[in-house]
Amino acid sequence: MISSLSHTSCLLALFILCSGNYVVAIEIPMGDLSGVPPFNVTQKSLLKFLKLGDTIKFNVPALYVFGDSTVDSGNNNFLISLAKANYTPYGVDFGDGKPTGRYTNGRTEADFIAQIVGLPFPPPYLGLSDTENKTLHTGVNYGSGGCGILSTGQNYLGTCLPFYKQINYFATTINNLEKRFESKKRFDDYLSKSLLFIDIGNIDMSSDYNGVGATIFRKYTVPQYAQMVANEFCKSLERLYKLGARKFLVNNLGAMGCIPTQVQGQMQKTLCVEKTNRPAVEYNKLLSEMLPKVQVSLPGSKIVIGDAYNVLMDAVTFPAQYG
Ligand SMILES: *[C@@H]1O[C@H](CO)[C@@H](O)[C@H](O)[C@H]1NC(C)=O
Ligand SMILES: *[C@@H]1O[C@H](CO)[C@@H](O)[C@H](O)[C@H]1NC(C)=O
Questions:
Q1: What is the CATH number of the domain that holds 57?
Q2: Signal peptide: which range, if any (predicted)?
Q3: How many CB atoms lie within 10 A of CB 260?
Q4: What is the pLDDT of residue 37?
Q5: Which of the residues in the chain have pLDDT under 70?
């Protein structure tokens, strides 16, 4: 259910470069990299490390993050839930080596994106102080482990923040922030340049569909359910657009069948559990068909898909290339 795998190094391959209204997704061939950049890396040296030089200018005033355990930076620490990453060895490679709530040894994909565009790590929304809640303008993280697009916010592990609730909180954030801008125009400009990074749906298409206590699989086929989840996802993007967001980086679903908890229980050892990967593949197909259409229907928007599935698959298939 909760991936204990470290996404950090493999998903470093996925990121986004933004300059003005332009958004380009770039995949760095990991074979060219050696290890993970140090924690305290500067934007400049990171770009050098990634062989991107200094020709790239970023114009991203804020990074807003939505999703599940792939990006949660500590929101679940504030919820009554068993889905928490607040104990060692989580966080051993993060700052002072203490767990933060991130489901990884180090940084999440969202943290790497923040470093690349030159922003602080977006803090978890539920941990914001009153002042931060009213003034922080570099971005917030709403991600919540174990939650998804059609999630109710209650599961057998406890509570979590489903996508719609994360968007409600985002609405609160920007509502607070708007008052601090001198004009509506300035604020709209800020918001349209801000990057929204979304990694969600992994739970919908795995444990919520066919995991412990799930009943959905009895009602819908995989294609039917994937369509329902994808429809709701696209509606949510429209909602974010109406709130003023324009730039979206959307990760597709990871190869959930390759995470250690899935692979370990097998009778016949394979790299990944095909049955678990299939729903993700089904959903990803829909996503790549639907998102270009959503972009066309939302004037001025730019939606980029990050291919998390294949990055993860590649890392599992060729681990040596990733150190
Ligand atoms: C980053 O950390 C390393 C080792 O912990 C240290 O040698 C280096 O000076 C630090 N760099 C910066 C920019 O703080
Ligand atoms: C942020 O401020 C809003 C009021 O504008 C409040 O409803 C919300 O609970 C606050 N959130 C946090 C995390 O402090």
A1: 3.40.50
A2: 1-25
A3: 10
A4: 86
A5: 1-34, 212-213, 215, 217
